Structure formats: C-alpha cells, structure tokens
Amino acid sequence: MKLIKALIFCLCAIFATSIACADDWPVWGKDKSRNMVSKETGICFDFEPGELKADETVDLSTTKNIKWVGKLGSQAYGNVTVGEGKVLVGTNNESVRDPQKQGDRGVVMCFDEKYGEFEWQLVIPKLGAGKVSDWEYIGVCSSPAIENGKAYVVTNRCEVVCLDLKGLKDGNDGVFQEEQVYIRPKGSSDPLNPKLDADIIWRYDMRDELGVFPHNVTSSSALILGDRLFVATSNGVDWSHINIPSPLSPSWIALDKNTGELIGEDGSGASEEALHAAWSSLAYGNLEGKDYLYWGGTDGYLYAYANETRQNDEGFDLFNPLWKIDCNEPHYRVDKEGRKIPYATPPGPSELIATPVLYDNKIYCSIGQDPEHGDGVGRLSCVDAKSGVLVWKNTEIGRTISTPSVADGLIYQAEYAGILHCLDAETGEVYWTYDSYSRIWGSTLVVDGKVLLGNEDGDLLIFEHGKEENEPKAINLGAPIYSSPVVANQTLYISTQTHLYAIGK
Q1: What is the torsional sign of CA 452, 78, 455, 51?
Q2: How far apart are CA 367 and CA 378, in angstroms?
Q3: What is the rounded CA–CA span in Å between residue 82 and residue 114?
Q4: What is the rounded CA–CA span in Å between residue 398 and residue 413?
Q5: Which of 94, 162, 252, 503 has CB atoms 3.0–4.6 Å from 74's, for a disulfide?
C-alpha cells in the first residue's frame, strides 16, 4: 500500500510540474519584455507536416505528431498568439471561410486551441489605397493581444479594435454595433454571419482621429499595461520615400483598453524624421520600481519613456522621452564629404522594425528596413535600459526585421540575409554564425534546449541552444515561413504562408 501511495504521489508531482511549465502565449513576444523564450519542456521537435489534398488542406493521416492544421489564406505575416483556449492569427481572405465575403481583405482567424476547429473571423475591407497604405493581399500583419476574454488587434485599415473572444455567437456586445456596415467594402451588401463573424467591442480609427498616413501596411502588436493599451501607428512616408504626409501625427499612442479613448501619444517627434514607417511594437520593464516603455523609432533611434503623460502648450497629452540613442552608425547617415546618404540604399541608415527586447536590465535591438529594400548595413545594439548608455554594438550583423531572443546569457539574432548569429549577451562576443542561404523574416524562439527559426524556403531550423556551433535539424513545411514559432501549453505552433500547424504528441 505504501508503495502504491508513493507511486501515486510521484505521478501527481510529475503531472503538476508539467502543468506548471505550460503557459499561454497571449501577446507578441510572449510577455511585456518581448523576449521570445519559453520555460516549457517536453516540446515535440520530431514531426512531419504531411501532404496536401486537392483542396489544399493537409491530410492528417500523412502527418506525424501534428495535433491539427488550420488552413490560412495565401499570405500570413501576423504572428500567432494563444490564450484562454483560443489561437489567433492574421492572414488574408484567399482561403474563403464565408462564401458571401469574397475578394481581397484582411482577416484575423480564431481557432479552438485544443482541436483546431475554426470558430470565427474578423473580415476587414481594404482601404482602397493600394500599395501605398494597404498593400494588396498582405492581410493583417499584427499579432492580436489576448486578455480577459478580449483580443486587441491593429487592422490593415490603421484601426485598433477590441474583439470579444467568443465572436458574435453570444450576442453583439460593446458600444460598437455596426459590424454589419464594417464588414462591407464600398458598393457591396455582404450579410453579417453571427456564426462566423467577429464581435467588435470598440474601434479607434487612427487615420480619422490622428491624421496618420500608414506606409504600405499597418503593423503593430499591442502592449497592455493595466488599463492602458499601447500601439504603434505605422505613420510614415509616401510612395516617394522622401515626403512625409503627416509629420505631426504620432508614431505610437496609448488608449484606454476598456473604452478605446485616447490617453496620450508619443512626444518624441520621430514622425518628422521618419525614414519609412512606425512599425516597431513597444516593450516594457520595471526597473527599481519605475515603469519604462521602450520603442524602436522610425527615425532609427531607440527611445525610453516613463508611463505617464504631460500636457504640452497646445493641450496634447504626450509621453516624452527619458532618453534616446541612435542605433545607426554616423557613416550610415552622412558620408565622408558630409552629404546625406540616401535611404533604401545598401550603405544608408535604417529604422527599427524589430521589437526592442528587455533582458537583465538591458535593451537589445537591431536596425533594418522593409525586405523590399534588400540587404544593407545594420547594427545590433545592447543598451543600458535605465540610462540609455550604449553597452556594446555589433556592426557585422546586417539589416534585420527579426526580434532577438536572449536566454542564459546568450543572444540569438537573425538577419534578413539568412544568417543566424549567437553572441554573448554581456560582451557582444560572437560564438557562432549559421547561414541558411534563405531570407529570414521571422524571429527566433528559445525553448526546451532548442533555438527555432523559420526561413523563406519553408524550413524550420532547429538548433541546440548553447555557445557551441551546431548544425541544425531542418524540417520543410512546404511554404515560406515569414512569422515566428511560438509555444503554448506544450504545443508548438508554426505558421507558414498558407497553413497553421499545431505540433505535439
């Protein structure tokens, strides 16, 4: 009897430990530090994605260790978030879920976490501005933020919307009651489908309210602090990459998460010096009892702010920078003759698109440009999170839109050229590099002793976590991987351009 009780106790302890290690991934970067590192263990890295059927869905009988697969549109750049039993991802409308809503639109899809059943979708008409502000077929590029039965999303229309995680199935909640009108492109009469359509609680239009001019796409993932919601606006240049249509519009704002009302806006003035677009999301840290907000600027500077506003002479509530630091080398901006180096040229300056990451009271961030601009000079910076003093820099790393991961004193930074770098987080010493010979858009994930990274060839690269150089295992998923791997509740999620895989034994 004592042996049986001891065995039961051990089994319960093991079960409790596995549950304690499991966790949601409710926001871009997992938490407010934006550092994509998970403490979960028992993750399955031995899987086969299977074969496609005639309707382009995956034949699950041909897979190995795949729990479920969700069919996405033809392009998916928005990173997966998982929370409260739901899995959310941004895509386009090329895999039509509602036959009565055809054509190019932005889409946020919601799946059941356990079984992968499609639950509802937010279908968003295009702005009609084309590539300049809402690039055709790109879809929704932002990661939804999940909290307390709601999801907060930045749409392709440069709006912030608060959604009911249950969709319209439990009724139309909130102050916003115009879903029937919202889903319709001009000149159409698409009907609302309570079984499939999203329930919008509130909506804030950054173009109408703030005069924002989004460049190419609107891309930002919300940061939630108490009752405040922080999002970047994507305000930027026009098609010429020279003219800034709205230089006085903010690069990021804070809203009341309950009502959608404006609380304050960025007071840095970065929009007046925008190189491209304000795409970088905000990070947060509490240092010695004080709140700090961190943002990678569209002007190429890293900024830190207190979580408080001050009213200026014109009556605007502004978050004013505590410090800023140029993440470009001086010779990226001006040549030896003192001439300004043109933007979107290989030797020219870059903005910050990747999200700043907080780790051990330091901020890690890299500069880069829209992949359309190609390769160019870059820099990975390590900055004291409190003072803004540069600790070290590495200029051998080229342009990137990938957010770094920092774990156990090591930093992993991918660059657009297809190279992954492993460095010492304290000194910047390079331990190893690996060239995948394929473009990299997404970011690394460190979990269960591995480092995961997808590339444009559709390979999921699985490295051993550590300072010793190693050859990765590569699993091809059949379509480009432009988003980042995430782990939630002992399930690995990989989103390709066309499918979302939930991986686990």
Answers
A1: positive
A2: 6
A3: 11
A4: 10
A5: 94
pTM of the complete model beyond 0.85: yes
- Give CA–CA dist 368/379, Å, rounded: 8
CA distance 96 to 354: 31
Q: What is the mean pLDDT of the chain?
A: 94
* pLDDT per residue as tens digits for the range 459-502: 999 999 999 999 999 999 999 999 999 999 999 999 999 999 99
Supply φ then ψ for residue 58, to 5 degrees. Answer: -85, 135
Question: Mind listing the domains of the chain with CATH numbers?
Answer: 24-503 (2.130.10.10)
Smallest CA-to-CA distance from 235 within 275, 204, 293 is with 275
Q: How many CB atoms lie within 10 A of CB 231?
A: 25
pLDDT in tens, 121-173: 999 999 988 899 999 999 999 999 999 999 999 999 999 999 999 999 999 99
How far apart, in whole angstroms, are the C-alpha atoms of residue 466 and residue 450?
A: 9
In three-state form (DSSP H/G/I as H, E/B as E, the rest C), the secondary structure along 113-181 is: CCCCCEEEEEEEECCCCHHHCCCCCCCCCCCCEEECCEEEEECCCCEEEEEECCHHHHCCCCCCCCHHH
- Report CA Rg, the chain: 22
Query: Rounded to whole angstroms, what are the CA distances from 314 to 145, 264, 318, 342?
Result: 32, 13, 11, 34
Tens digit of pLDDT for each residue in 259-316? 999 999 999 999 999 999 999 999 999 999 999 999 999 999 999 999 999 999 999 9
Cβ-proximal residues to 462 (8 Å cutoff; 6+ apart), any chain: 45, 450, 451, 452, 472, 473, 474, 475
Measured distance CA(499)–CA(69) in Å, rounded: 7
